[in-house]
Amino acid sequence: MGLSRMRRHGGPHIRVRAARPMAEHGAMDQLRRIVRSAETVLGPGLVGAYQHGSGVLGGLRPASDLDVLVVTRQSMTTRQREALLAALLAISGPAAGGRPVELTVVVQAEVRPWRFPPTADFLYGEWLRAELTAGGPPRPEPMPDLALLIAMVLAGDRPLAGPPPAQVLEPVPPADLARASLAGIAGLLADLAGDTRNVVLTFARIWATVATGEIRSKDAAARWALDRLPPEHRPVLRHARDLYRHTSYAAETWSPGLRSAARPCVDEMLFRIRAAAADRDDLGDAGSR
């Protein structure tokens, strides 16, 4: 099974606009359950657990996941994978009475010293529920956008267990941050029809990241891109941003006109992304994707 989480970046090499919003009470309870499960399953193999994503970059929105990175001393055993998957299936999503959970596990030695592309040891996301339930727990696989996640963890500095992330993880070089952003483009284009809101917003974030070296929240990236998009493409991005701010997935709607305009909007942002990548001298072949 492929580990793919390109939806949805620390250290002194990367600028990240992190905030410290207050999480809602239910989300905090859910985070505590996630951490307790990881501690129970991993025992002394757990190095630390860290929040990232919307909870760090600007605040949880109606459809936001709870994003957690777990760092371990060694790769998980099959029994540990099965136990952690069972725990997350019982904690994550509407069926469990909470927000969707996205939990990534990485072995510390796989990312310290830093190398690209990094390898994730385990990935759970609510969008993978059916696949994981049918096929069993995930195995280790390369995951380029783990670079973005680690950068967010370092910037957010939100330990849920263990030492501060700067004592556990190394900064991600700017070129690898851009490479990670570019690596997910093909998958995003394939997902446009079924996940229009997130794909449109992620293209805005990729554009902002490649052009400026700064990781923004989806909201802030949309604002940055709206100032630079031609007027005819702004309604699609504006609608995606408004959905992100105010609307659950169940209540999401797109007019026929906006839906038909989504691909041209994405194509325009993709053109701008490629131009920004071509202007950089640190990407090599990745800049021509």
Automatic annotation (TrEMBL):
A single MF term (Gene Ontology): adenylyltransferase activity
GO BP, sorted A to Z: response to antibiotic
Official protein name in the record: Nucleotidyltransferase
Domain called Adenylyltransferase AadA C-terminal: residue spans: 167-269
Pfam families: AadA_C
Annotated keywords: Antibiotic resistance, Transferase
Domain of life: Bacteria
Reaction(s) catalysed (UniProt annotation): spectinomycin + ATP = 9-O-adenylylspectinomycin + diphosphate
Source species: Actinoplanes nipponensis
Entry keyword annotation includes Iron: no
